[in-house]
Amino acid sequence: MATRRLPRWHEVKPLIGAENPFKNRRARALARAANIWDLRALAKQHTPAAVFDYTDGAAGAELALHRAREVFNRIEFEPRVLRDVANLDTKTEILGVSSALPIVLAPTGFTRMMHHAGEPAVAAVAAKVGIPYCLSTLGTTSIEDLASAVPNVRRWFQLYLMRDRSLRAGLLERAAAGDYDTLVLTVDAPVAGIRNRDIRNGLTVPPKLSLSTLANMSRYPSWWFNVLTTEPLEFATLRSSEGTVADLMNKVFDPSVTPADVTWARETWPGKLVVKGVQSVADAKLLSELGVDGIVLSNHGGRQLDMAPVPLEQLPLVKEAVGESISVFIDGGVLSGGDVVAAVALGADAVLIGRAYLYGLMAGGQAGVQRAVDILQQEIRTTMSLLGARSVSELTPDFVRLRNPI
User: What 3-state class would DSSP assign to 293?
Assistant: First the structure.
């Protein structure tokens, strides 16, 4: 029969699990975020609706966005057991350079709107982890300022083809001078997609202090304080930023882009050339023939053409068509390390992550981005271990299949 006694303090103390009282509330919330969806929930709490929707939303009825997630939800892994996974290796080669993970932090527009720390905070995390970061033409930090702020990150530069050909050429010169080693040429935005959330929210660049936004300050005081006490929000490379993002895109971007523009970029740019926005096998084959180094299968996160093809479904078809002649990357709907592993197993050389790290940025600045990447990294390692894949090179289509819709 058990003898009862009063517990001693040294026995009880480890069970209490009190949180560090010196850690602020935002940091504690980030630490408790178990996945990217938790970071998304935090982001929604800390940013005005128009800002959150700009990141979270897509074009039209958002079918392309939801279909991308639906396809990832149909992924089924087929693990192999009795494999020694004690020494797991998540490193891979991306365009000839080693990367700690098969991930690139994707170019995103107007990043300082999500959090005043902006692009340098994202690039700093990429540098710490050892993965590439891509700065957008629509970024809120200049080519030179990013290079100065985070000199040790592998820098890519994303270019939209603009009507002003001298401007596009000048941007390439500046990026080359700043030791950006890869150009990402985005070709799926001859005009702006119709993003209903932005229209309904009346989102402008920069945000206007209307009666509704002034009322909104009371709900998000820290966000507004940071906006009003830091450098004005504007596009770093495009000074004409009045009106909506769609207004700017339709005014500045060139709708007459052809393969000749890709050839121009190939002849002008001294580094690696990747074309982003590929959505068909035919275009993948064309770009391979044009001599690009890589393509990104992407429907712009569903933010351009609604009802566009789902990149993950196109991936095996494109890989079969182009083989190993060019690197094939993918983005869209990737919100977990399991998603990354599945995409690589199906043939992607790496995965571009956008919304996932932006949720972290909105949730907690640089610390939030770090938390997002840490979550993805742990999920990648755990998924690979449980699959029995000891290295990224061992991830093959044998490990994954798509279940039929119910």
Answer: coil
Q: Is the pLDDT confidence value at 11 over 80? A: no
Band of pLDDT at residue 201, cut at 50, 70 and 90: confident
* Residue tagged active-site, from 46, 115, 116, 300: 300
Adjacent-strand bridge partners of 183? 157, 273
Q: What is the mean pLDDT of residues 344-366?
A: 98
- Answer whether residue 206 shows pLDDT above 70: no
Residue with tokens 């094939």: 328
Q: Using alpha carbons, select from 134, 135, 241, 246 the residue that is nearest to residue 189.
A: 246
- Is residue 66 part of the annotated active site? The answer reads no
Question: Which range among 119-123, 147-151, 153-157, 225-229 shows the weakest confidence by mean pLDDT?
Answer: 225-229
Is the four-CA dihedral 380, 385, 386, 387 of positive or negative sign?
Answer: positive
What are the residues whose beta carbons fall under 8 Å from the beta carbon of 133, sequence distance 6 or more?
104, 105, 122, 123, 126, 127, 150, 153, 154, 155, 156
Domains and CATH numbers, the chain: 33-396 (3.20.20.70)
Q: Which phi-psi region, left, alpha or beta, contains residue 230 (left: φ > 0; alpha: ψ -120 to 50)?
A: beta
